[in-house]
Amino acid sequence: LAKVVEDGLDKPAATRDNQRIHIHLNAGLSADTSIAVNKGVDGVGLYRTEVPFLLQRSFPSEEEQTHQYQSILSTYRDKPVVMRTLDIGGDKPLPYLAIEEDNPFLGWRGIRFTLDHPEIFLIQVRAMLRASIGYSNMDILLPMISGIAELDESIALIERAYTEVAKVAQSKGQTLKRPRIGIMIEVPSILYQLPVLKGKVDFISVGSNDLTQYLLAVDRNNSRVAGVYDALHPAVLHALKHIIDTSQRLQLPVSVCGELAGDPIGALLLVGMGYRSLSMNTRNVAKIKYMLRHISLEEMEQLAQFALTATFADEVRDNTIAFVDGHG
Ligand code: PEP
Ligand code: MG
């Protein structure tokens, strides 16, 4: 089977009837992104910059960060690389920065933390911009945006960093491309503000892990309530449908970078709903490409249609599995 799955891995992903689907990588370590094992992907859809921060003993300097970011931008020089600003807090505490809170997932994490520490945010964004000199493939993604004020504040800081780095670049005769800016759709409040994003951001990326956690009010890492955490819950599926429909109407580029995109059932349903860009861990790429290649878009649309009428997650799961099993 491994050989069958490997077959065609170098080719771009498409459904059986040749609807092109963009497959991107989720990464955080250079080992995840080695070009040799990731031939045939369309870029990096989520570079989790907190991973190198978690492995260090103290905050990496601007130089160190520039170096790290440069390495991934150059590896994927012809393809987009979506770099997410620091998403610490919640389940990702930094060893050298204690944050004690009763409800870490509802607390000081992601953009909330970095906007309260603009110096950390500015160092990181400057490092990203410096790393991007000479490349044109960098996008910046903001995590945990729950309202427009956070977005406006982040954009203002990015603009400030851009002006600083562009000035230095210009003095050396280099040009600095303006990065595309996007936000994670992972806090439910932002589902109701999607139209306001048009004109402010260049793209959105759906974080189904946190979206599920916050829609269902269930800690994504608590084994006691693991049975409640289900990305196929009808509420999550309807939220995902709302996002794709609205972004199509607004002509706002969208992709999904939560675990659901790399899950066989999830990928079929997402494509069936209308998503054309999925970002996943490297280990899921071959499997998802193989599956897409053997199923038509119309079949995926039917699976999604059924899923959106279901009352229970298990109905969705059973129906999709039965279809795939019937397919051999
Ligand atoms: C998500 O929440 O779905 C996501 C991709 O981000 P993370 O898992 O890093 O929180
Ligand atoms: Mg998240």
Using brief descriptors, characterize the structure shown.
328 residues; alpha/beta; 45% helix; binds phosphoenolpyruvate; binds magnesium ion; phosphoenolpyruvate--protein phosphotransferase
Characterization of this structure:
- This protein has 328 residues and is α/β, with parallel strands linked by helices.
- Helices cover 45% and strands 11% of the residues.
- The protein is built from 13 helices and eight strands.
- It has helices at 2-6, 50-55, 62-75, 110-116, 118-132, 148-171, 194-197, 208-215, 234-250, 264-273, 282-293, 297-307, 313-327; strands at 22-27, 44-48, 81-84, 138-142, 180-185, 203-206, 254-256, 277-280.
- An eight-stranded parallel beta sheet has the order 7-6-5-4-3-2-1-8.
- The model has no long low-confidence stretch (mean pLDDT 94).
- It binds phosphoenolpyruvate and magnesium ion (MG).
- Belongs to the PEP-utilizing enzyme family.
- GO terms for molecular function: kinase activity; metal ion binding; phosphoenolpyruvate-protein phosphotransferase activity.
- It is found in: Cytoplasm.
- Keywords: Cytoplasm, Kinase, Magnesium, Metal-binding, Phosphotransferase system, Pyruvate, Sugar transport, Transferase, Transport.
List strands and helices in order, with pairings:
Layout: H1 2-6, E1 22-27, E2 44-48, H2 50-55, H3 62-75, E3 81-84, H4 110-116, H5 118-132, E4 138-142, H6 148-171, E5 180-185, H7 194-197, E6 203-206, H8 208-215, H9 234-250, E7 254-256, H10 264-273, E8 277-280, H11 282-293, H12 297-307, H13 313-327
Parallel strand pairs: 1-2, 1-8, 2-3, 3-4, 4-5, 5-6, 6-7
Helix pairs in contact: 3-5, 5-6, 10-12
This protein binds phosphoenolpyruvate and magnesium ion.
Phosphoenolpyruvate (PEP) binds at residues 46, 48, 87, 186, 207-210, 257-258.
Family: Belongs to the PEP-utilizing enzyme family.
Protein name: phosphoenolpyruvate--protein phosphotransferase
Subcellular location: Cytoplasm
